[in-house]
Amino acid sequence: MDTRKGGHRYCPSCKKIVETRVLLEGYSQLEVQGIPAKKRQVICGTDAEGSNGCGAKWFTLEMLEEKVLGKGGKRG
Ligand SMILES: [Zn+2]
Question: What averages of pLDDT result for each successive group of 10 residues across the chain (76 residues)?
Answer without folding.
Answer: 83 97 92 94 95 96 90 63
